Amino acid sequence: MDLDASDAAARLLAGPRGRALCAAVAGLDSFRLTSALERPVAGSAFARYESASDGRPGRRPPGWRALRRRAGYAESDPVHGASELVVRAVAAVDLAALAAVRDELALIPSLVDAIDDVMFSGGEELTRRALAPAVEALTPVAEALARAAGAAWWWDGCDQGAQRWIRFERGPERPPAGAGRALADWARSEDESEAARPFPDAPFPPRGDGPRCSGTWWSTPPFRSIVRTSRALPGLPAVALALMEDGPPDVAVEVFEVDLVASAEILEVDGPRAWCELTERFPREVTLTRRHDWWRWTGWEGRWFIPDWQQVAGAFDGVHLSTAAYLESSYRALRVSGGATCLSGFDPDETLWLTGVVAGARSAGS
User: What are the mean pLDDT values of the chain's consecutive 10-residue runs (366 residues total)?
Assistant: First the structure.
């Protein structure tokens, strides 16, 4: 890592995921933070009440009206006292012991807490708003993390000698040989989705009492269409087994060691600038398919762009997102020519392989 601890800490705290990580290290994951603030949220409880009346028009379960009022309150009421709460939590952290952590697995649970709630629930949105003004309070934790040897790999590039691919129960038995057809299908699907103008009757920006629209929200090709790998750590066969947004697609049944051709050219996304440069070099507009979700997460109302992965494949074999870059960059409106881009659905330490550079694969257990 070339950054000093203060610069690395500032970059971690620039993004909502980085702030969530530091809060989790201090014992304030999303659930504990919202509970401590006594702010009821919509989230899964409200969804359960809604689903309880499914198929019975006009019938609402007991307590529905009160829960709906509480959900609206949680989404509209400013968060007070969050910074003071964070200050008290950070004061209880042994910062010297945190900075001395050498075990790379010791910090994995806090990373899981930071990425586990993909930006759909009221709790996650509330957490994001609560932590935004708490950067100063969280800075000592971020600086300790930046000094910890157990977190040093967060800033590393793709470890080509330790890449692992996960076989899932309903997926292919071995890493696909190439991605050309899959990327062509992805590009065609994106074109069709934008042309279809999803949610044509939903107002934008959404009104407070309007429908909550959610559609395609990720910035990468669909999960199964290309090879995705992550590094192995001592005691963890593949980082992606723990650090996968929105949960795995189904049951992981085997981890493969992946051999890459020596000439594989990898683009390192080490922060917002690299992601924006990639998007500006190979832009694809996705405003109509992403704007509802991404507006809710960022407040940006303009045009949205992501990298055109089919074009990216003509320049690079793979694109790697470091864990530190994920924490700094994801779920933000990052300005690019003509609008903004959002990095979402790209997991920490993940490499997307866009060409056929996998030379071989064997079970990591053999």
Answer: 83 96 91 70 45 45 44 50 88 96 95 75 72 94 97 96 91 83 95 91 75 85 88 95 82 91 96 98 97 90 97 97 98 97 96 93 80
Are 351 and 220 contacting, i.e. CB atoms less than 8 angstroms apart?
no
CA–CA distance from 104 to each of 100, 109, 231 (Å)?
A: 11, 11, 12
- Alpha carbon distance 136, 270 (integer Å): 23
DSSP string, 320-350: EE-HHHHHHHTTS-EEETTEEE---S--TT-
Q: What is the CA radius of gyration of the chain?
A: 21
pLDDT tens digits for range 255-305: 999 999 999 999 999 999 999 999 999 999 999 999 998 998 899 999 999
What does the pLDDT read at residue 152? Answer: 97
Please, where are the H alpha helices in the chain? Answer: 5-12, 16-25, 30-36, 43-52, 64-76, 82-91, 95-99, 108-116, 122-131, 135-147, 180-195, 272-281, 287-298, 309-312, 323-329
Task: Supply angle C-alpha 84, 87, 89, rounded to 5.
Answer: 110
pLDDT in the model for residue 225: 81
Cα(96)–Cα(93) distance, integer angstroms: 9
Residue 8 to residue 11: CA distance in whole angstroms: 5
Backbone angles phi, psi at 132, to 5 degrees: -55, -45
CB-CB contact of 308 with 187 (8 Å)? yes
Distance separating alpha carbons of residues 262 and 73, to the nearest angstrom: 56
